[in-house]
Every structure is written in C-alpha cells, then in structure tokens.
Specification:
Strand 2 and strand 3 form a beta hairpin. It contains 12 helices and 3 strands, in the order αααααααααβααββα. It is extended and about 75 Å long. The mean pLDDT is 88. With 239 residues, it is mainly alpha-helical.
Length: 239
C-alpha cells in the first residue's frame, strides 16, 4: 500500500520542498497555491502537499487564500470516502467552521466551507441522490466546483466505486439517481467506464473481493479445564 505522503504525479520541485525545511517557509506558499490550481486543471490530487499549504496558512494567517482553501476542499470530495476532507477541515481557522455573523473574519469563506461540508456529510451518509440534488439547488455550489475540472465525472467514478464494493445488482432507476445521469450517457458510463452489464432494468456489477458473499466459520477453542474453573467459581459464589 502506498504511503500517505506518496503521489505519483507530484512534480520534483514540490517533492523537494515537502522533504526539506522549505515546507515551513512562507515564501513557498505561492508555489503550493499554484500547485493546487494545477491539480484542479489536470485532474490530479496530492493530499500531502495540500495539507502542507493549509499548515502554512495556520502559521501565517495573513497569507491565507480563500480561493485555494475552497479548491482544496472541493478536490477532497472527489476522493471520498477517504478522510481527507476531515483532515483539511481540522487545519482551517475556527472562524470558517461555524457561521456566526459579526465574528467570522471571512463570511464568504465560511459560507463556502459550510456548503462543502454539507456535501461531504451527504456523501458520508451514502445519500448520493441528496448530494446531486443539493449540488444543483443553488448557483453558489456551481461556483464552488467550477474551478475543479471534470468534477461531475470524478464524483460519478467515486460513487460507482463505492457502490461496487457493496452490491452485485442494482436497479437502473436507483443507480441513475445515484450517478445523476440517464439515457445513452448512463449506458456509456456504466458499460465503458465501470465495465458493468445492463440487463433490462437491472445493472449487474462484476464480483470483486469487496462484494463477494463469503460465509464465515467461527470456531471456539475452549478447553475443558476452563469449564471446571467456571463451575467451581459458581459454587464459591453460591456459598
């Protein structure tokens, strides 16, 4: 399993910064911010580098970029169900975690964080229909995800991957709501991207190690002498 700080797409100069003292140098903030933008444009993801940027913001609040923070949180949604969103959330200033007029130093950022957190909660609860419904309910959500290239497709892939770990068959209508795609586009995604089979109104998911039904045999290794101690203890308590 790859280590937490591993990223195959990480540029060499970013790797050098992360493995040296410059990761704590405020002058690298701009470099990390540009790298975040690059991830959003190229559909790559580097959690370790993004956390390093948020840590720099903690040490240097005056350098914080609401735009970069929003992009990072939005990108973490595309790798659910990993805990990356929570990891990033815990590095943000308290003022962004609770909407409180008059106290939040940046109401715009706080509002964005709250909206993205709501989406994260829906994904964590496997309420995929609610996720898409919420995403389309307000133009501000469209503004939040606009900076992440291919956001909808990335989310569909993650949702499909999660579904494939739990089921072998699913009704087409339900899956269409979970993926927020219908018709020929739905069939293309299910067949070409996921490799699943459309069988009438049923979508069949190939067996894998996660959705395979396997019986478990529980064997208890209890020696006779242990029963003797239990019986003796019972008599002692009775006396």
């Amino acid at each position: 399993m790859p280590s937490f700080d591993y990223c195959p797409d990480r540029p060499e100069h970013i790797d050098t910064i992360l493995n040296g003292l410059d990761r704590y140098n405020p002058q690298t903030t701009q470099v990390f911010q540009e790298y975040v933008q690059q991830q959003c444009e190229n559909q790559t993801y580097d959690c370790y580098a993004n956390l390093a940027l948020l840590k720099l913001y903690q040490f240097n609040p005056h350098l914080s970029s609401p735009h970069a923070i929003t992009l990072i949180l939005t990108k973490t949604l595309t790798v659910f169900p990993s805990p990356d969103f929570s990891l990033c959330l815990h590095l943000l200033p308290p003022s962004t975690l609770l909407l409180s007029p008059g106290r939040a130093s940046n109401p715009t950022l706080a509002d964005a964080v709250q909206k993205l957190n709501a989406l994260n909660h829906l994904l964590s609860a496997a309420d995929y229909k609610g996720f898409w419904s919420t995403l389309r309910s307000d133009d501000s959500y469209s503004d939040l995800i606009a900076g992440v290239s291919g956001f909808d497709e990335l989310m569909r892939v993650r949702i499909a991957a999660t579904v494939s770990q739990a089921v072998r068959e699913v009704e087409r209508g339900i899956l269409e709501e979970w993926l927020n795609v219908r018709g020929a586009q739905f069939e293309r995604f299910v067949g070409e991207v996921c490799g699943w089979k459309v069988d009438g109104r049923t979508i069949k998911v190939p067996m894998n190690k996660e959705n395979e039904a396997r019986g478990s045999v529980v064997r208890e290794d209890v020696k006779f002498g242990q029963f003797g101690r239990v019986v003796r203890r019972g008599f002692e308590c009775g006396a």
